[in-house]
Every structure is written in C-alpha cells, then in structure tokens.
Amino acid sequence: MKYNAKYASRLAVAPMMDWTDRHCRYLHRQLSRHALLYTEMVTAPALVQGAALHLLEFSPAEHPVALQLGGCDPRELAQAARLGQEAGYDEINLNCGCPSDRVQSGAFGAVLMKTPALVAECVGAMREAVDVDVTVKCRIGVDDQDPETVLPAFLETLAAAGCGRVTIHARKAWLQGLSPKENRDVPPLDHALVLRMKARFPDLHISINGGVASLDQARRLLDAGMDGVMIGRAAYHAPADILAGADPAIWGVGRVRDPVQAVHAMLPYVEAHLTGGGRLHQVSRHMLGLFAGRPGARAWRRALSEGACRAGAGPEVLVGALAHVAPLAEAARAV
C-alpha cells in the first residue's frame, strides 16, 4: 500500500535524536493513524559506507513514516535515499537544521544553509534516485545570516531543484556558542516569517516547526495558511495531548483515542520485542509521558521507571502501572 506523506504532513512528529526510534513511533501510531512520523536522523555514510542497514528497520504499522538523512555528498545521499525507498519509507528528508558539533564536523545539518547550491545538488541527486518525495528540513538561517534575505533565497533554490515540500524550524541555528539543547530554546521564534514565506511561495508545501506546544496551536497555524505543522518535544513528552485527538481535529476522521487502550495495544509489541532479545525499558521509556498532566501520571511514571529496568521485566509491568491511571480514565468515560 502506498501512503500519502504529503497528506499526512498536516501534522508530523519531528525527528529527534535518541527519541523517535522505532519503539517510539510504534507508540505514536497507536494514538494517531494519520500523523506523519519521522525517524531519528540517519547519516548517509552509516548506510552507504558502514552498511548499517539495521538503522532502517521499522514496523509496517508505522506508516506513513519518513526517513531523515544527514549528509552532504550528493552521490552518497542518492544511494542512501535508494536504500530508504527499498526499505519502504514513504518520504526521504534531508536534514539542513541540526546544529550539533558532530553534525557540523561532517559538514551537514544546519551548516548546509550556507551552501544552498550544494543542497540543491543533493536534492536533485536524491530525487533522481527515488520515486517517493524528497523533502528538506531547515532553519530560518544560521549565525549572522539575515533570515529575511537568506530564507527566501534558500527556498527559491530548493524549488528550482524540484523540492516541493519543506519544513522550516522557525529559529536560527547558532553553530558556535550554543549547544544543541540551547539551539532549541534560546534563538527567538519567528513564526511570522515562516507564514510570510508561505504567502510568498504559494506553490511550495511548507510546514512550520518550533515552539508548537498544543493541538490547538497547530490548528491555528493551519488556519493561518500553513500546509503542515511539525511538533517535537510536546509530542514526545505528552504524546496523548498532541496525538490522541489529532485524527478528528486535523483530518476530520476517526475519534479521540484513549491512551489506556494504546497501552493495551502495545502489549503484543512488547512481547515480540522481548522474545527477540530486547528489554522492556527500550520501549517503556517512550511511554513515561503518556498520561502527562492527568491524575495518576506520577505513579505511572514511577511504576514504569522502577519496574522496567528489573531483570525479566515484561508486559505485566505496564499492566500493573495502569492500575494508577486506568480506573480514573474509566470513571471519566462513564460520566
């Protein structure tokens, strides 16, 4: 089955290193059938030179799902994109926004915003290699660049290279002086600039990222003219708040999903993971915020944190932790 990543990108969960692995994505898919999910960034050299194809593994249940690649060599990115398409991904995304020192040392990520011609060459090579959409995630600029000048020029270059979809993190990236964590908070947000870019490039599908903390805020940005909204930390730390009601709120289909039912849906997945030699903590760590802000959430987190790391821990830890929240959820449904 072919999935429409463009349709799904009306609401997407951002690629986040160490967070959006396949276990996280499987959980998120239990809450929303339509949201576009992204892998952590996978470097093209790891796939092409290191043959680390295990990094491409995912469950068919995760669709629609996009592979984010990091790299700066057009030929290598084309090979990695081809591997991603062969693995079954619905979109291949090029990272032009990560500011970490490790990424900079490889001359990719946010530093690529300084060489738009090279980005265009990379996009062109990737598009020739695959049939699925090739997209770009970028910042509004880096260091002392003037976003009002740099961003439209960057978008024009991407459009000329045949890139039809772009996600813009509405903050600058400071390549020196700020840590990756600080780069997510310290540079001021400029949602207005991204909205102006959508008005300036009506034929370019533009999603906005950065500082979106609620489903209501996402809907307001869509109503203001954005083609899509990408949410990162809020979707990870409080996934039910963002994703459980996303299908009816964003696409007008389905129903609000119950996080208690999502936990039950995870049990067979956990069993399979443990049978394959995995540990419960590898899955349950992504579930800590499932009941964020709700009665029993603290006890749920404590039960998972303490129980999941014990030798031989299995699905019974999840079921036991639900005792702190399930009765309350059931009572709320009965009102």
Give the tags:
Four Helix Bundle (Hemerythrin (Met), subunit A); 18 helices; disordered C terminus; 335 residues; globular; TIM Barrel; eight-stranded parallel β-barrel; 9 strands; alpha/beta
Tally of strands: 9
Dominant shape: globular
Helix count from the secondary structure assignment: 18
Largest sheet: 8 strands, parallel, barrel
- Assembly type of the chains comes to single chain
Helix content: 40-55%
Overall pLDDT level:
93
Q: How are the strands ordered across the major sheet?
A: 1-2-4-5-6-7-8-9
Topology-level CATH name of the largest domain: TIM Barrel
Low-confidence stretches: 331-335
Brief description of this entry?
With 335 residues, this protein is an alpha/beta fold. The chain has 18 helices and 9 strands. It has 2 domains: 5-251, Alpha-Beta Barrel (TIM Barrel), CATH 3.20.20.70; 259-334, Four Helix Bundle (Hemerythrin (Met), subunit A), CATH 1.20.120.1460.
Question: How is this structure best described in words?
Answer:
It is a single chain. The termini are far apart. The protein has helices at residues 5-8, 22-31, 44-48, 74-87, 101-105, 116-129, 147-160, 180-183, 191-200, 215-223, 233-237, 239-243, 246-251, 259-275, 280-284, 297-307, 315-322, 326-334; strands spanning 11-13, 36-38, 42-43, 65-70, 91-96, 133-139, 165-169, 205-209, 228-231. An eight-stranded parallel barrel has the order 1-2-4-5-6-7-8-9, surrounded by six helices. Helix 2 (22-31) packs antiparallel against helix 14 and helix 14 (259-275) packs antiparallel against helix 17. Mean pLDDT is 93; it is low at 331-335. The protein has two domains: 5-251, Alpha-Beta Barrel (TIM Barrel), CATH 3.20.20; 259-334, Four Helix Bundle (Hemerythrin (Met), subunit A). The longest helix is centred in the last third of the chain and has 17 residues, at 259-275. The chain contains 18 helices and nine strands. The protein is an alpha/beta fold and 335 residues long. The radius of gyration is 20 Å and the shape is globular.
